[in-house]
Design goal:
single chain; Uridine Diphospho-n-acetylenolpyruvylglucosamine Reductase, domain 3; Alpha-Beta Plaits; 12 helices; 25% strand; FAD binding
Length: 412
């Protein structure tokens, strides 16, 4: 539900430029997968779905330039067809590349930073209606501030990403992994594959599923029947207990193209559970065992609203607003039943439990703790505020979320 007075679906960058020049307040939408009000506005709301979906590979430079409306699922298929790949993906291929990068969205894996880490060049439509090109070569500091910028600096009209030769991935799913195995050997568990996702409802000190995704090198061997005490699943599963596995990507160790295995869900299917609310918190990796025990202690409070939670790891990066800026992270994601008032009433309990561990929220998910509690953990926030005021001096891209989070003087 948005508060905008006007809604636009421009078909070209030139049309988008005119909208921005005329507007006093404007925000852009990607694939509308943000659960916070980060993309809301009372002025002009612009969907990028009709914006250029060009995908141009430069094989010599091993890069791909994409238009601002491209989604990961379509990018993956196009890259693979030309013999190239991205290093990692999020769990949903339906996400727009520009939106996922701007909010610090991530996949999973000890060596995998946020998706924005693949960006090598950014084309930004600024408040004046002009296009600004940003890259490390044109100013590394501004680039690190602009790639993960939650839409505060302008509208991304094109991105260039680093690519690599295509490859295959397999995923194997295990059931009934004990908390004590995870808490006692967290590094060993999470480094057992290129990507490890642990799913739980915070009941019975158990992760009901563990999804292991590995790049395929050479012969495909059968997966061990047991893993840290968990048992290899005999059929494909959905992370939400009892849900059909039809929307999920193939499991059982069957190799397939990277873009059909890194995500948990298929491009043409309903993502995740469909009707839901999401929250996510990331904190320094070393705190994961204690943080997980603290959350399991809250299990009875979470159960009535929770569909499922996912635990992942994310590598450090240097983007100013990334929740993993400066340190490797563990991430805990919550998929809630679609009752946002009840979820908001419950979140203070979770956020209080995670505060001692230096948690930071995902900007596109629902969180309720006052911004100043989170902001002290982002060392470049004052620099980002200055960058906002430099590129958008009249606040054309600001909204209530950005003003409360980044511009309230009480937060600095």
């Amino acid at each position: 539900m948005y508060s905008a007075a006007r809604f636009h679906r421009p078909g070209s960058v030139e049309e988008l430029q005119e909208i921005v020049r005329r507007a006093s307040s404007v925000k852009a939408l990607g694939t509308r997968h943000s659960f916070s009000s980060v993309a809301d506005t009372e002025g002009d709301l612009v969907s990028l779905e009709r914006l250029s979906r060009t995908i141009t590979v430069n094989a010599d430079q091993q890069t791909v330039r994409i238009g601002g409306g491209v989604r990961y699922g379509e990018l993956g298929a196009a890259l693979h067809a030309q013999g190239f790949a991205l290093p990692n993906l999020a769990s949903l291929p339906q996400l727009s590349v520009a939106g996922a990068c701007a909010t610090g969205t991530h996949g999973s894996g000890d060596a995998s930073p946020v998706l924005a880490s693949a960006v090598t060049r950014l084309e930004l439509l600024t408040a004046s209606g002009d296009l600004l090109e940003l890259s490390p070569e044109h100013g590394a500091e501004m680039f690190r501030g602009a790639v993960v910028s939650v839409g505060a600096l302008g509208i991304v009209t094109a991105l260039t990403l680093a690519v690599e030769p295509t490859y295959e991935v397999r995923q194997d799913v295990y059931e009934h992994l004990a908390l004590e195995q995870v808490a006692g050997q967290f590094d060993e568990v999470m480094s057992a594959a290129d990507s490890v996702s642990l799913f739980t409802t915070w009941q019975n000190d158990t992760f009901h599923q563990a999804w292991l995704k590995r790049r395929v090198h050479g012969a495909v061997l059968a997966a061990p029947r047991t893993w840290f005490g968990a048992t290899l699943a005999e059929q494909d599963l959905h992370p939400v207990p009892g849900a059909s596995a039809t929307p999920c990507t193939p499991q059982g160790g069957r190799p397939g193209p990277w873009f059909e295995r890194w995500p948990h869900f298929r491009m043409g299917q309903t993502p995740s559970s469909g009707e839901e609310v999401q929250s996510e918190y990331l904190f320094p990796r070393q705190h994961a065992p204690a943080a997980l025990r603290a959350l399991f202690a809250l299990g009875p409070h979470l159960a009535p609203l929770l569909l499922v939670s996912e635990v992942r790891t994310v590598a450090a990066d240097s983007f100013w607003l990334s929740p993993c800026s400066g340190h490797d992270c563990a991430a805990v994601h919550f998929t809630w039943r679609q009752d946002e008032p009840a979820v908001r009433a419950l979140l203070p309990l979770i956020e209080s439990a995670l505060t001692p561990f230096g948690a930071r929220p995902h900007w596109g998910k629902v969180f309720v703790t006052p911004p100043q509690r989170w902001l002290g953990r982002q060392s470049r926030l004052a620099d980002f505020r200055d960058l906002m005021q430099t590129l958008d001096p009249d606040g054309k891209f600001q909204n209530a979320f950005l003003k409360a989070t980044f511009l309230d003087q009480n937060n600095f």
